[in-house]
């Protein structure tokens, strides 16, 4: 494809290259969410060198933007494309689903490496009956279309869930799905077991901290050195909240007979700016969260409950997006400004181990840890809702968290 760039565009292109080269390299194998709710982002052609230079090998879209898919042709970067919530009702028609797969997926293969289709986003917690009733039929239609086109071996079909699908998550070994969602969730899981797709969750420890900063330890959510938490039911030691969230989901899956499904984190991140009441939304905390997160990914360790499974995730997000609705934080999750300059230096440690001494990984058991349950003024439940607002039409449920104190629950 022939590329034409104007003089101002060329200047931005060069700035993106120089800025990306100056930024610390991202850990190989990590994914990035590429949202586009903004009016000042660089063109997809200009984003390609930025994504490649930071070492990201996977990109997740909230749609199937043809400009992006064309721009990333023959780069080898894997793509998850999104079929937005707003399209689910009409995609219950197999002919329409087939046409969508042909136009949005098949048309770009094999040059663009599309490996997954995310149908909807946080549908089960949307409180939208039409969406909930549509999710499995649409996943079936999309998969059937892939089979008919001979693409089902290279492209999987899944959907992303909010952590709020959990009724209990405290401690991780007691993770259970909400009883009102179990019926629909089981149908989704049956489909995924049959087709071999990963179980996706959007997990944001930030929301648990923001909802109750006096009860949630900041070091625990930022992967900093802390006493951690001991789940006495399993004797597993947790040094960060994200791993506890993931293992709570594994427990919930196992409890209803799906222990062999693999959990991937489709979104996680930390805002660098927020409103006055958005405690913790600072560049310093965002740098610690994402920098320490990437260090853990580079160690190729799993969670305490799944130590042999590599940590698979997509950071939210590539850019700050100035048109996103909601509180200020929603517009400041990006690793990069629209001009391509880093929002903050990630300070990713070198592989030789010369790194922050206060950064820790999770796994195994250890002494000196807090244990479950906590004292009455103790720890906020790890269950929270991400509330992402992207073109996929995700529901906006901000700052939800469940606090379990002994046998009582309060909803924040």
From TrEMBL:
One of the record's GO molecular function terms: glucan endo-1,3-beta-D-glucosidase activity
Reactions mediated catalytically: Hydrolysis of (1->3)-beta-D-glucosidic linkages in (1->3)-beta-D-glucans
Pfam family, any one: Glyco_hydro_17
Biological process according to GO: carbohydrate metabolic process
EC number, UniProt record: 3.2.1.39
Key words of the record: Glycosidase, Hydrolase, Signal
Disordered, as annotated region: 348-372
SUPFAM superfamilies according to UniProt: (Trans)glycosidases
Class of the enzyme per the UniProt entry, highest EC level: hydrolase
Leader sequence segment: 1-22
Low complexity bias (residue ranges): 353-362
Family recorded in the similarity comment: Belongs to the glycosyl hydrolase 17 family.
Protein name, per record: glucan endo-1,3-beta-D-glucosidase
């Amino acid at each position: 494809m022939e590329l034409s760039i104007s003089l101002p565009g060329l200047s931005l292109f060069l700035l993106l290259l120089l800025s990306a080269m100056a930024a610390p390299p991202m850990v190989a194998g990590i994914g990035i969410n590429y949202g586009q709710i903004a009016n000042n982002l660089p063109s997809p052609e200009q984003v390609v060198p930025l994504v490649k230079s930071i070492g990201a090998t996977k990109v997740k879209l909230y749609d199937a933007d043809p400009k992006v898919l064309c721009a990333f042709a023959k780069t080898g970067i894997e793509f998850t494309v999104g079929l937005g919530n707003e399209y689910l009702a009409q995609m219950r028609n197999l002919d329409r689903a087939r046409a969508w797969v042909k136009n949005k997926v098949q048309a770009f293969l094999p040059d663009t490496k599309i490996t997954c289709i995310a149908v909807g986003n946080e549908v089960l917690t949307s409180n939208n009956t039409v969406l909930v009733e549509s999710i499995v039929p649409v996943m079936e239609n999309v998969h059937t279309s892939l089979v008919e086109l001979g693409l089902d071996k290279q492209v999987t079909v899944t959907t992303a869930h909010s952590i709020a699908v959990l009724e209990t998550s405290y401690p991780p070994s007691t993770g259970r799905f909400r009883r009102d969602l179990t019926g629909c969730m089981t149908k989704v899981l049956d489909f995924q077991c049959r087709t071999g797709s990963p179980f996706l969750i959007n997990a944001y420890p930030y929301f648990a901290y923001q909802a109750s900063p006096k009860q949630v330890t900041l070091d625990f959510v930022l992967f900093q050195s802390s006493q951690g938490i001991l789940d006495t039911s399993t004797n597993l030691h947790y040094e960060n909240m994200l791993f506890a969230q993931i293992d709570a989901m594994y427990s919930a899956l196992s409890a209803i007979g799906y222990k062999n499904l693999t959990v991937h984190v489709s979104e996680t991140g930390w805002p660098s700016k927020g409103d006055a009441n958005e405690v913790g939304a600072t560049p310093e905390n965002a740098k610690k969260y994402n920098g320490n997160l990437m260090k853990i990914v580079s160690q190729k360790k799993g969670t305490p409950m799944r130590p042999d499974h590599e940590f698979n995730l997509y950071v939210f997000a590539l850019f700050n997006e100035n048109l996103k609705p909601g509180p200020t934080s929603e517009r400041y999750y990006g690793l990069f400004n629209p001009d391509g300059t880093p929002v903050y230096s990630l300070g990713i440690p070198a592989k030789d181990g010369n790194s922050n001494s206060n950064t820790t990984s999770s796994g195994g058991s250890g002494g000196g840890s807090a244990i479950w349950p906590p004292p009455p003024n103790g720890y906020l439940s790890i269950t929270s809702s991400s509330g992402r607002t992207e073109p996929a039409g995700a529901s906006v449920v901000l700052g939800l968290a469940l606090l379990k104190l002994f046998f009582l629950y309060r909803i924040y």
